[in-house]
Amino acid sequence: MPELPEVETVRSALAPVVTGQQVMAVYVGRKDLRWPLPEALDKQLLGCRFAAPTRRGKYVLMPNDNGQVLLIHLGMSGSIRIHEAKPELAKHDHMMLTVEADDGGHRYIVLNDPRRFGWVDLFAAEDMATHKLLKDMGPEPLGNAFSATHIQTVFANRKSPVKNALLDQRLIAGIGNIYACEALFKSGISPRRRAGSITAGRADKLAHAIVTVLRAAIAEGGTSLRDHVQPGGEIGYFVQKLSVYGRDGLPCVICETPIRIIVQSGRSSFYCPSCQR
Ligand SMILES: [Zn+2]
């Protein structure tokens, strides 16, 4: 599932392609993904010009000169491809935007989502603060509002495991299963520890680990973009350097204790029972 670094990679791939460019054609193949798509989405987008895309949590936000914002959520399995030549649309390609390009040609932006847990919305920019997916979202972990103090404040008195608290988008935006596991390993905190028991010292390590892990993954995503051989490749799926996620039974990179896997709220948690307390 795309998390903050993957979505950030998609945003940075879209930025040079869409910024300042006009939408020349829109294909919308379905009336719904996870939820119904906006009415006449194709007609609403046709002819608009995009400003620079931004990101909030796991959402790509593409403002346009109609005073609207196109929101793209990749869900569990969604991906974006950017083509220089018009592609044959494949199964699960639900949307394609054709934008003009500086070289006189066009670029084709395709949204593919086999499991359809993703979503696309178009809303007035002034409604950003009240949008149902955005209004309750916690601070960006790479932004100024995020700190050890923030972690301590929002985790205080929580009986749920710290792993579950990290996945709660209302507390911190953008962290999913992979980077929650990695950040907990890096900070030496057990995923089973009660969120409310995180002391100032642990909160400090955790805040630092979250930022480090996310920044490293974003850098990795940037590398994957530069190394892109196939122009039709899915953007935002790259091989991360992971210490615990997906490594159950393999030796811990620090102490060689086998990495353990447990299920918390239906999600797999990977951790070192020796390094993480
Ligand atoms: Zn270990």
Automatic annotation (TrEMBL):
Looking up NCBIfam families in the UniProt record yields: fpg, PRK01103.1
Q: Name the coenzymes or cofactors required.
A: Zn(2+)
- UniProt feature coiled coil, ranges: none
Entry binding sites for DNA: 92, 115, 158
Q: What does this protein do?
A: Involved in base excision repair of DNA damaged by oxidation or by mutagenic agents. Acts as DNA glycosylase that recognizes and removes damaged bases. Has a preference for oxidized purines, such as 7,8-dihydro-8-oxoguanine (8-oxoG). Has AP (apurinic/apyrimidinic) lyase activity and introduces nicks in the DNA strand. Cleaves the DNA backbone by beta-delta elimination to generate a single-strand break at the site of the removed base with both 3'- and 5'-phosphates.
Q: Which family does it belong to?
A: Belongs to the FPG family.
Organism field: Puniceispirillum marinum (strain IMCC1322)
Q: Where is the FPG-type domain?
A: 243-277
Domain of life from the UniProt record: Bacteria
* Cofactor binding, note field: Binds 1 zinc ion per subunit.
Q: Which GO terms describe its molecular function?
A: 8-oxo-7,8-dihydroguanine DNA N-glycosylase activity; class I DNA-(apurinic or apyrimidinic site) endonuclease activity; damaged DNA binding; zinc ion binding
Reactions catalysed, semicolon-separated, are: 2'-deoxyribonucleotide-(2'-deoxyribose 5'-phosphate)-2'-deoxyribonucleotide-DNA = a 3'-end 2'-deoxyribonucleotide-(2,3-dehydro-2,3-deoxyribose 5'-phosphate)-DNA + a 5'-end 5'-phospho-2'-deoxyribonucleoside-DNA + H(+); Hydrolysis of DNA containing ring-opened 7-methylguanine residues, releasing 2,6-diamino-4-hydroxy-5-(N-methyl)formamidopyrimidine
Q: Which UniProt keywords apply?
A: DNA damage, DNA repair, DNA-binding, Glycosidase, Hydrolase, Lyase, Metal-binding, Multifunctional enzyme, Zinc, Zinc-finger
GO BP annotations of the record are: base-excision repair
Q: What is its EC number?
A: 3.2.2.23, 4.2.99.18
Q: Which InterPro entries match?
A: FPG_cat, FPG_Glyclase, FPG_N, H2TH_FPG, Ribosomal_uS13-like_H2TH, Znf_DNA_glyclase/AP_lyase, Znf_FPG/IleRS
Q: Does the keyword Zinc-finger apply?
A: yes
Protein name in the entry: Formamidopyrimidine-DNA glycosylase
Assembly and partners are described as:
Monomer.
